[in-house]
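HOLO CASE FILE
Compound: protoporphyrin IX containing FE
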Amino acid sequence: MANTEATATETEEEKVLTDLEKVGEPRAPRKKPNEINAEELTGQIETPKVQRDVADHKPYLCKPKSMEKLGFPSELRSDWHDAAIAKMGDLLKKYKALQVYMDICVKCGSCTDKCHYFIGTQDGNNMPVARAELFRKVYRKYFTTEGKILGKLAGAERFDLDLLGEWYSYFHQCSQCRRCSVFCPYGIDTAEISMAAREIMDHIGVGQKYTNDIIVKVHEVGNNLGMNPKALAATLESTEEDLEEETGQKIRLPLDVEGADVLMVTPSADFFASPHVESLLGYAKVMHQAGINWTFSSTASEAGNFGIFIGNYGQMQKVASRVQKAIEELRPKRLVVGECGHAWRIAYSFWNTIIGPFGSLDPNYPRPQHICEFTLDLYNRGAIKFDKSANDDRVVTMHDSCNVARGARMGDQRGGQFTIPRELIKASCNRYVDMDQDTIMEKTFCCGGGGGLLTDDLLELRVQGALPRMQALHKVRETHGVNFMACICAIDKAQFTKVMPKYGIPLSVCGGVHQLVASAIELGAKE
Amino acid sequence: MTVLFVILAYLAATVFIVGLVAKVWKYATTPAPLKIPQTPAPVTETGVPGRMLSEVAVFKSLFKSNRVLWLAAYLFHIGLLLAVIKHFRFFFAGIAAVPGLSVFTTYEMYAGPIMAIGLLFLLMLRFVVDRHAYISVMSDYFLLLLLVGIAVTGVIAKHFLRVDLVQVKTFVMGIVSFSPQAFPAEPIFIIHFSLVLLLLVYFPFSKLMHAAGLFFSPTRNQVDNPREKRLVTPWAAETPAQVEVVEEAPETI
Ligand code: HEM
Ligand code: SF4
Ligand code: SF4
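Model generated. Tokens follow.
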């Protein structure tokens, strides 16, 4: 066991640090952004030949300060091995999914060609079942009779530093997109396994910098971007001015209004990142035109919730509890969530459990409601009108966000998360075309930057992981002249605008669904 | 011989039943704190059995994913199912009287061969497809070979060496009714029977638990209605809205 030597020697402190570095540093130094190249696009998604150990990507380790702030050990625990096994036992008792998925994978191989990171990196350990096996090896060794008796023959392995290093690498090469789960005969969800792995690693002092820093930022400042309430108010004000210049109308972006009809919770990227802000303008125009009294909240200025990415229930709940607090403070009648994939999964699937029930909200509307549900409903009732020709310079396709496609829904029908945004898009433009059936709806490919991987220290992985989506997009660009891919996710927008240039696709191709709405909506007098 | 196999049979049956029940109990009682149904999920309670049925009866997701693999898997499982049903006659007296069974008996002779072909097909995939080879370990090959062994010895015993089935039935019914009878000690039957006992013992501790675990998979058995119906499970409800601060950092740091 790696730590027996450590505890036995004088140089213990040094030794422990070295171990942590061993776990957290890739073998080869990370490439600089300009050294990263993307594959030539052909429009075809091909299953690669399996390679061994070719994707040694690792994100930066979390600094001790952030670890402590989240209640995790600041450094690799000297008894990390025992602590990890204990935590694994704990999680197995808490999560049915984890327990069942540990036991029932038959290694049929059905999922092996489904992960965008495997397709992009060709690394065998990025096949979903192989990724899960890294976890299962340890599970078998310490929790199953088969593994205890047969050992390696049954695929059981001791949890040592090398294996921990592989965990750190490959469980941060999973965007928790759940595509593999769609094709597994038992629905085995590798996302659940990678969440559990990250939770265990955090508990022994091996955290990821990007996700953990962001969670700290939300606790301390209120949102992922670290924008304090004053800065937020100023941003909203200047956006109002821009809007007035553009439209000649007084379109408001209200903040902290008590007793509003609608409390809008949106990813903080919408406030000033590009192209996110274009959708923000869309929300504002819709509210304005429909005459709805709405507000943002400086308490809940973030819809995103990175607690899910690190698999920590308490953190996820604490981040979400800001929304609960905002409802108490502002007493809105309705709760609407902006364009963000994982945020909508958490809002739709988890909020009712972790911060519900929403007794104070109007039960005549979904609690919470997605902005696409909200806008389409207004459109269908005639409260807003679109001039489709405003988007005539665009040929539009839609990228289904993995979290919305596979982890949430909209409307009251099955598949509403696919039909509602598409209806809204088609209502606001004349030319729409879908990408290949195998790459949309529940079979959608992740953008390559989800699950807490949207960080520049993983840029090479992000470029590789985007490959299948880029291929599908390339195909419709060639065949139909598509020049706009509508997204409903802040991570998609940030990821695509970063990686598309590598693939030779212009930035303007990526935008939001409400960006189209913003162009098409007819402002002014209503009859 | 009889004494040995009677003891082994009871041991194996006990391990199988106790092991299976213990595992199923564990799956059933472990909480699922969050709603994680996988699209396309049913939006009502009544939709869940239908979804399950499509997975169990026709391996729907596998079909969506990989037709070749589906064919191999389906052949094997259909063969297995036929083989299991066909063995009922050893367990129950007067089974021939069950209506509809005669249709089945016309095809039952194909059970073993279908099963074996499916298994060899699956085995071949593990050698031929590089992705499958990458993920396969000893126990994956072992299980397939064990099942091939059972299928092949079964076919040989029945169709080639023509083991005395009346004697087999007497023995099995003796076991089931707790009044042991003489063991049909023909070599091919000894092998077939031993392999089956091995399979029974191995079952609860291996990936064969997929047969039961499938029904407890939250992505497949949950209803997609989180906004309408609040899900609350004990430990999750008790988690304070504040961060759970875990064990202190180790003193060595
Ligand atoms: C509820 C009943 C069952 C269902 C729905 C079911 C379903 C499946 C599915 C979908 C697969 C994946 C495809 C494949 O690789 O074959 C599989 C694999 C397998 N099943 Fe079953 N199964 C059931 C019962 C059983 C039983 C009772 C046994 C054995 C005694 C069994 C033995 C196997 C084996 C050995 C594999 C792995 C095949 C391989 O190595 O590729 N199954 N099963
Ligand atoms: S599809 Fe499911 S059962 Fe098959 S190898 Fe992948 S995770 Fe395992
Ligand atoms: S959840 Fe997505 S990223 Fe993770 S293994 Fe499955 S397909 Fe790959």
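CASE NOTES: The first helix of chain A runs from residue 2 to 8. The radius of gyration of chain A is 23 Å.
CLOSED: yes
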